[in-house]
Amino acid sequence: MLYALLDAGGDTYAIDTAEIEAVIPCVAVKKIPAASLAISGIANFHGDPLVIVDCGVLLTGIPSPLLYSTRILVCNIHVSGFFRKIGLLAENATRVQRLLEGEFVSPGAHSETATFAREVANVEGRWVQRLRPDSILTVDVIDALTSGEGGID
Fold first, then answer.
1. Which candidate, 28, 2, 25, 31, places its Cα nearest to that of 15?
2. Which candidate, 61, 57, 50, 62, places its Cα nearest to that of 23?
3. CA torsion angle for 143, 83, 2, 89 (degrees, to 10)?
4. In 3D, which of 59, 31, 22, 29 has the Cα closest to residue 44?
5. What gap in Å lies between CA 86 and CA 76, rounded to an integer?
6. In whole numbers, what is the pLDDT of the chain averaged over residues?
7. For 80-137, where are the E strands, in sequence order?
């Protein structure tokens, strides 16, 4: 399978490219007043508003730096009974890696609160953790995404 790699807080993460609809450059966003820190704002995606969620904040508590390699991964997620398109703001998201299912192994420890922390694979001497886009969302982000219209049953 092909995985998109991204960085947050000095660690590298992998998202299956089958879960990514598009990868777009980091664009200007319209801030949402009083939104969760993890919600960067909304951007225009083919004429529709796209909520941009910062992977750096979700994974490390620190906003992703806006670099040339920062990208938005457009993903369709299933959350609270709805399918929703979101953009994941991700640092250094310009790389892909082919990994076999058998290359992912248990990290040997887990966190009760970090349910997104899944299996790891060794890529060029570094441990890369597999993520599902919907699993990294926090309760406040899920509430914000499902509190209005826009989801599809």
1. 2
2. 50
3. -40
4. 29
5. 6
6. 89
7. 82-98, 120-123, 126-131
Three-class secondary structure of residue 102 per DSSP: helix
Find the DSSP H helices in the chain: 55-60, 139-146
- Calpha distance 30→133 (Å, rounded): 22
**Percent of the chain surpassing pLDDT 70:** 95
* Three-state SS letters, 6-41: EEECCEEEEEEHHHEEEEEECCCCECCCCCCCCEEE
Residue type, 143: D
Per-residue pLDDT tens digits for 81-101: 878 899 999 999 999 999 999
- Residues whose CB falls within 8 Å of the CB of residue 31, separated by 6 or more in sequence, listed in order: 40, 41
Count CB atoms within 10 A of the CB of residue 57: 20
Diameter over CA atoms, the chain: 45
Q: Please state the pTM of the whole predicted model.
A: 0.89
